[in-house]
Queue: 4 jobs
Job 1
Amino acid sequence: QLKENLKQVLPYYMIPAYCIALYSIPHTPNRKVDQKALPEPEISKWTSQTGYRQPRNELEKKMAVLWENVLQKSPIGIDDNFFDLGGNSLKAVQLSMVMTKELGIDISVKLLFLHGTIAGVAEKWIMLYSS
């Protein structure tokens, strides 16, 4: 529910991938947030809420392999969001470069931010660049 509310006021790329409720925030003796004492998120809880959908065509199959390599997670379905699976701006740049090199198609970082799923990126790319 928190993420849905944030979507109303923030661009998608600013919505945190993980939200953890804390009863108190740990502090160092200097009264700064003790980042080392913060709990690690259980990433397995943050996979796609829509369930796994396998790639439907060759482009999506190739993209899924590249996404799995960059994110070091498997399997990644076509509805799994890049940023929810641990992607960030640096990994988005890396993925953009790898897709351009391996697939021979220009997938911009902007396209990844706007359409964060394999299905969304592939459909938008096809719509923009195929004739």
Job 2
Amino acid sequence: MNWLEDKNSVLRISLDDLRKMTRDDFRPEQPMRLDITSPDVTVPLLVVRREYAEQLIILNNGAVDLKRSQGKPIFQRSSWWEDISSHQIYVCDPGTIGPDALALNWMQGTPPLWVNSLIAKTVRIIAQHLDVRNPLDRTYFGSSAGGFAALLQLSADKQARCLVNNAQFDWTKWYAHHVTPVLQAHFAGRTAAEVRKSWPHRANALQYLLRKPEPLNIEYHVNAASSYDIDIQLPIFEKFFSANRSLCNSVVVHRYYDDQQGHSPFPRLTTLDLLNTRK
């Protein structure tokens, strides 16, 4: 079935129709834009099928530059696609697009909307189409807010690998000028503390992993030169796994020091090396 004649256009498709697609609908070496639709939300994706790949990487955005995006989907790192040996799915947070776009949204939606459910189902369907059926061959990746999203996605694919760099595990503890717009947009102006109490799994991606406890494979790279990451987010990670040791199948923290990068993610070559290293 030929779903998309023009490689530059966008295919708007429901989960039911996505299931009807086949591997041949994802043409090798031709990035394909999809909008996955549901009654409540649309998730923009960019999918890349590599000709000889056996693994799949799901890449998530960090903060979005709204002046650059103008409310349109951004797929960070997608210009690197030819340098990544695996199949790729680039996920754009729906809250960062449209007239009310936020630079950071951490995959949040007004309860009971839970965007991650749609994303998780979508990834699994596309993975089947790409013949990546073994979860050990799937990697969820993100830095900063993208790391939060990657962990949410891991919650539905527990045997897969998650690779995060300077991630926010609890977005409500990021800087107030980014947190407050999300609280106003989705939580009726409640405080960050109220969200942590009423919706702990929405605030803290690690808490969401407890909804179905299974051993995890997480590789966390944190810059010791970033006081925010070392003093606030790293202790959240360490406290969680100290209290939930049975989840530590392969949970590793890699500290490095780069005073020029700070909270910013690894540069391109370092990131590509991590993404292309087969685990």
Job 3
Amino acid sequence: MDSLKLMELRLYSPAKIARPRFKKHLKREMLFETLDEHRHYPGIWINGPAGSGKTILVSSYIEERHLDALWYQLDSGDQDIATFFHYLGLADQKRISEKAKPLPAYTPEYEKGIFIFSKRYFEALYGRMPTPSALVLDNYHEVPIGGPFHVMIREPFP
């Protein structure tokens, strides 16, 4: 990706890959401490009813703990795996050095080997992220049940 395109990407961030910011929110120190206690796990699932503050909790935790993070807003279009990897690659490009090579694009020849592609993609992605950091898949429930997405996303998190 040339430096002009990368600069434009850093200035323009599609809502799909932008971490939501909240001007006013209650600091939830007890929940922050619970998240701190579980950071050694490869993934943390936060579940609750709509409007209970899950997004605010995670966004404020990332801000409060000064974590490097990739934020990804899932929706029904992410059932298409190519779309998911495209936007995840954009999120990664937004936060890395201009000289870093982009992550591989998901193309039709990977369809039969999606699990291998997924595993290698996430290994490369996590290898570029500092420790500690976070990959947030917000609104996971928006991706329709069935199809390869849910199976594919489970692969990097055994």
Job 4
Amino acid sequence: MSFIESNMNTISRPRRYGAWILVALAVAGGVYYWSQQAKKTEAATLDTTALTRGDLVESISSTGALSALEEVTVGSQVSGIVTNVLVDFNAQVKKGDLLAVIDPQTLQAQVGVSRATVAQRQVTYDEAVRQLDEGKRLYEQKYLSDRDLRALEVAARNAKAQLESSLVDLNRQNVQLQYANIRSPIDGVVMTRSVDPGNTVQASMQAPTLFVVASDLTKMKILASVDETQIAQIKEGMQARFTVSGITDKTFNAKVRQVRLKSTTTNNVVTYTVVLDAENPENLLFPGMTATIDFILSKIENALLVPSAALRVRVPDELRIAADQRPVGQSPSGKGTSGQRATGGAAANRTRFGQGGAEGGGKPGGRSVLWLVNAEGKAYRVPVRVLGSDLTTSAVAPLRPANSSGEALKEGDPVITRVITPNSSGSAGGSNSSQNRNMMMQGVGGFGGGSR
């Protein structure tokens, strides 16, 4: 009997294990089934933002360096020891102000030598003139021949030429003496001082740099680099605005003065230099600062503004009002299930605005669609014209009234910017990966709130 019971226990043990496995599989299947049902009943939600009104600026961005309108390098045309320096960095100077003095003793001695030479040659010239006058009287009395008179005339002319040469040399030495006083060539500010008292200046080969004087810094210029793909849009006289990293809370104004034709190639990137004039009345801007510039292409004032993502939203049929739902059997491209194109004005309109992609793709001047939410939480479609756009914001104007009461789009209307679907973080277009794949297969193109 014990042998039979042991055999029975041996046989029943696998059966108990199999039962437990079946129970576990049933529980797992139930959990999976109910989780899938919960996902199916989970509804998509709409993310909205209020319509605003304001100004939109279309611009081209670039960077450049600030500098003074004019910078003059001040050197020396004479050699010698610097005996005095009268200015320092950032000193305000006027044209003709004395900046430094080079020891003038050697130059003064040269002036003295030239002056003595002039005096000597003046005496020689005066004597030659007296001899010529006497010779003319003797010639008239037939005491001198023609040849003797000509010799006196040549001697007088030579004496006069030597006197004039010495006067020129004296004038040159006086000019050299004046060069010992280093003066400012313009009104401005001393940007660089490269000399101290006691330094020796050697100007035999080239003029050494002693100072750099910049013009009035209340007006400055910017040398900006603009890419070849955008340079055609930059015109002389165009307004611009810029900021500098050291002053983050202030925007400065500038104006395009010149678009230079000479190009620069760096790492196969071709750029052109644009010169802008900038006002600096508060002296907040310093030469050498890096400016982040926005060239203003156009400015749209007092327009309705929406996030650019709102022009690319695609709303599922179940979240739309009945008038904006896709007809049964019609594909997003506007064709019926049998392959025939849908006919009728309503179907054509739906295909044109939002069902098959907006005209212009949401680009400035094109047509697109905004999706708004009514009091029941349903989405309804409003065709709009895109007036302009920057990287994040677009200015729009409605092509028809936005609601049943006949009111146009107005500030504060809730505009859908994203459709958040189950188990999806939500994208700008509000569709998950499977929806994106379906739209690609169905041929949905463009922007502007097409269906799933």
